[in-house]
Write a structure and sequence with these properties.
The protein is of the alpha/beta class. It has one domain: Rossmann fold. 45% of the residues lie in helices and 17% in strands. It is built from eight helices and nine strands. It has helices at residues 15-26, 38-47, 67-78, 101-129, 150-170, 201-214, 225-233, 237-240; strands at 6-10, 30-35, 54-58, 83-86, 132-137, 175-182, 185-186, 199-200, 218-221. The strands form two sheets. Strands 3-2-1-4-5-6-9 form a seven-stranded parallel β-sheet, sandwiched between helices. The protein is globular. The termini are far apart. 40% of the residues are buried. It binds NADP nicotinamide-adenine-dinucleotide phosphate. Residues 11-17, 35-37, 40, 60-62, 87-91, 110, 137, 139, 182, 184-185, 187-190 line the site of NADP nicotinamide-adenine-dinucleotide phosphate.
Length: 245
Amino acid sequence: MSGFRTAAVIGASVGIGAELVKQLVASGVVVAAVARRLPELEALQAACGGPDKVKIYVHDVKQFDEAPAVFDRLVAELGGLDCLIYNAGVMPRIEESEYNFAKDREMIEVNLLGAMAWFNPAAAFMEARRAGTLVGISSVAGDRGRRGNPAYHTSKAALTTYLEALRNRLFRYGVHVVTVKPGPVRTAMTEGLKLPLMIDADDAARGTLALARAGTGQGYVPVAWRPIMLAIQHVPSVLFRRTNI
Ligand SMILES: NC(=O)c1ccc[n+]([C@@H]2O[C@H](COP(=O)([O-])OP(=O)(O)OC[C@H]3O[C@@H](n4cnc5c(N)ncnc54)[C@H](OP(=O)(O)O)[C@@H]3O)[C@@H](O)[C@H]2O)c1
């Protein structure tokens, strides 16, 4: 089990990200919390005990060119970085016959390109130090191309593959790369949706941090999704397209 002294959560203002920050602070970690909404970040900072515990950074992950400078600033202010969790994500609703490039682009930019913009400087930093943990919040949604939201599934499938490649690249330098695949979680993202096996954001954060601390390659949260997704991955395409899964 690796113990973290410092961590950064990208996409930290609400939902799973805010719970990650709270649980990291509760275990003695000093955290950099990154997101767009300052009031939510300030409330989180206050709830966690102030700026000695949580340092806040207002940043839009779609501003890819800004990521390296924000990364350098938070590393300097934390005095190092043991763990970076990329949690930022969006999943706008897509109607049955809606084909909407603006929404598709938003999902690819936030869920995938923003992750690359942040993991690149973090990987270089950790490779040079021969230590560290990078965590990406992917999803069970990346395991199969389902009908409801093609771009969301694509963004998570691509993120999963990107993280696997990063893990294969960095393991020889002692850097852990962890892919977390939550099932449905009760947050603003899923408001109004009826989804199976839903868990609360604090449980999703707890499962995520257990995987991060273990340095496990990839894992489902909760673990019950593992056999379910194994089965779903093996449904032949010719049958899968006729289901509503
Ligand atoms: N909820 C689920 O069922 C579920 C299941 C599997 C995986 N996931 C994944 O888990 C992650 C967290 O989801 P959640 O359910 O906690 O969603 P959420 O409650 O909607 O929170 C999303 C977080 O991402 C941040 N974010 C979004 N766009 C951003 C941008 N352009 N720049 C910076 N930060 C941005 C938001 O901060 P600001 O808006 O303040 O910027 C917020 O902190 C996502 O990657 C999601 O895909 C969720």
